[in-house]
Amino acid sequence: MEDRKWKLILEIVLEILIVSIAFIGSFLAFAYLAHEIAQHDEAAIDERVFDFFASWDADWFISMMKFFTFFGKPEFLIPFYLLMVAYFFLRKRNRYATSVLIIGTTSTGLLFVLKGLFKRDRPDLPLVENITNYSFPSGHALLTFILCSIFIYLIWQRNKKLFWKFFFSFLLLLFAFIVGVSRIILRVHYPTDVLAGFCMGFAWSILSFWLMNKMTEKKSVLSIHN
User: Fold this and answer.
1) Residue 88 φ/ψ, nearest 5 degrees
2) CA distance linking residue 170 with residue 44, whole number of Å
3) CA neighbor of 146 nearest in space, from 89, 222, 217, 72
4) pLDDT tens readout for residues 65-81
5) pLDDT tens, 109-118?
6) Residue 185 burial (CB < 10 Å; 0-12/13-18/19+)?
7) Are 154 and 172 contacting, i.e. CB atoms less than 8 angstroms apart?
8) DSSP state for residue 136 in the 8-state scheme
9) pTM attached to this predicted model
10) How many CB atoms lie within 10 A of CB 187?
11) How many domains does the chain have?
12) Is the dihedral of CA 170, 174, 74, 114 positive or negative?
């Protein structure tokens, strides 16, 4: 009994340690980028990446990037989140429905706060019209990464073979990466905007899912005692 108790304590400590390192690391990476943008307006990395993609200007490639960038727009994300919430409620998976609703809402609110805080202007000569809000961080990178993280979380909750869990997780992360890169190629975001969006998306996903799990565990314990 005593060994089991210490094993449980060790598992809890390791979980908190891993979550803390992942969250703090990604948050510090975002903070560093934010500091460089706000204090120094660092553009050296941005210009190098823009130069790298400068020759990738074939019409078919730009059209493909516009296709992928659609999946990070509010016109796609809002209806998709609503469909997810409705689906889980209809399937009586209220915990998933509530989690998706909270994560989707809070991440969107976080994005607006950050954009209003840093107020970074967009790059010159964008290939997409009617972009009026601020640039830092990339909402497409942040929100798409969080949406893909939700799917990854759901995949790992299912009783599937480990290979398929890793395989689909890789595809989802690759999809989020392509959506983020599309914003650079279309010149509507600086590369540092996209990188910061990924960093904050990762940090927010880690924090959200950890808190959701803790709340679920607490409710389970209370229900047992009652």
Assistant:
1) -70, -35
2) 30
3) 72
4) 999 999 998 889 999 99
5) 999 998 888 8
6) buried
7) no
8) S
9) 0.82
10) 18
11) 1
12) positive
In this structure, is residue 120 part of a structural domain?
yes
Distance between first and last Cα of the chain = 25
Helices (H), the chain: 2-35, 44-53, 59-69, 74-90, 94-118, 139-157, 162-185, 191-225
Q: Which residues contact 62 (CB under 8 A, 6 or more apart)?
A: 127, 185, 186
Strand, helix or coil for residue 92: coil
Q: Is 211 helix (H, G, I), strand (E, B) or coil?
A: helix
Q: Is residue 180 part of a domain?
A: yes
Q: What token pair was written down for 130?
A: 């009617």
Query: Would 48 be classed as within a structural domain?
Result: no
Structure tokens that stand for 202 in this block? 């990762």
Q: Which domain does 76 fall in, by range?
A: 2-35+56-225
In a domain, 47, yes or no: no
Tens-level pLDDT at each residue, the chain (226 residues) = 555 655 556 655 666 666 677 667 777 777 777 766 666 655 667 777 787 787 777 888 889 999 999 999 888 999 999 999 999 999 888 888 888 898 889 999 999 998 888 888 888 777 777 777 788 889 899 999 999 999 998 888 887 788 888 899 999 999 999 999 999 899 888 888 998 899 899 888 888 887 777 666 655 444 444 5
